Amino acid sequence: MYDLVVIGAGPGGYVAAIRAAQLGLKVACVEKEPALGGTCLRIGCIPSKALLQSSHLYHQARHDLSRHGIKVSGVEFDLGTMLRRKDTVVKTLTKGVEGLFSKNKVERITGTASIASPGRVKVGERELETRNILVATGSVPSFFPGMELDYEVVGTSTEALSYAKVPEHLIVIGAGVIGLELGSVWGRLGARVSVVEFLDRILPGTDLEIAKAAQKILEKQGMEFHLGQKVTSARAEGARGVVETESGLRLEGDRVLVAVGRKPFIEGLGLEELGVKIDRGRILVNEHFATSLPGIYAIGDCIPGPMLAHKAEDEGVAVSEFLATGYGHVNYDTIPGIVYTHPEIASVGQSEEQLKEKGIPYRKGSFPFLANGRARAQNETDGMVKILAHAETDRVLGVHILGANAGDLIAECVVAMEFSASSEDIARICHAHPTISEAVKEAALAVDGRPIHI
Fold this sequence. Notes:
This protein has about 450 residues and is an alpha/beta fold. Helices cover about 35% and strands about 25% of the residues.
């Protein structure tokens, strides 16, 4: 008899399993893939960041080093080596999860799971008895009608992580995080990149001012945008990919990346047959991640909320702590989001548009990287820090950063918001000089109309 059987070994599942084991529970984790880590580690976050780093270094060598007085010539890249390095990073980390399971005495079971009833999980011919079941099966790419994927010419992010050669023309359907990140990878390596988006803006959900500024930067880098375009067809015609839109736009390229979002993967688990409540493909849970059936819980991309690995991890910790101690909590107001383009885009809390829609009075402070000494020294002057604070209490409601190291800078702001800090609190904290983090302090000062360096 297990205390907990986790279905899925992605960031949410394996973290939940480890935390539950740390708390003394007898835990098994079922994963159908040979390697642990889920989509994020195997074919998502980690391999894409490896390629983003490699392609960024190549781009720097070709275009940026001369500004620092470093003369280079004949710079070339070896795509095979880049891809092998990416695979090595992934393999090392998946093996690391195996080691963590062994260290924490989590039993790893390979196979496809289904839930026979509360307390019973089937894996092939084996049936596991458990007090609790946690569904952490993640998500898969979404597609729209008219998209004919052959997974060669027209494919998903999985294929885009391993193109055998750099596309001459890559057409990206979807101007979200995945599309812009992988578009950046191949654009840096020489591809013409055209992005087709249904909405009239990029990065849906991101603060609009930040998104517009990011678009201008990406356009300077060579990325083409076709916004407000409803794709009606995406197909392969021989070795060419063809994308057509409702307005009559027709694009042809040698690769098409479909990146229009993701949907929960819960097929084959038997949840609907058991009567677990599901809404638009997502499992409905309460504040303790319990489904409508006692003893069955769910986290991560399977449930409502942003599809982010770190959100799933926090939920995994919270549900395991709840099962062991009776308490577990996730503050959804302080979950950051990051886009790893160059420069990076990071945010936490509410956007200016959301505050306006809710009628919340606010004050805004912003500070450009152009006026930051360290950013100048690094030749990283694109972007800005934007802080939104309540007009009456000064409590920080949202922070949005476009610029160098935004993904790291946002952590300070997450901590501040977690402790209900005001913009004055951030402004009064001593930030080391010269650092890019001083831009955060200056933006906080700007909320009160008293920035020092602009």
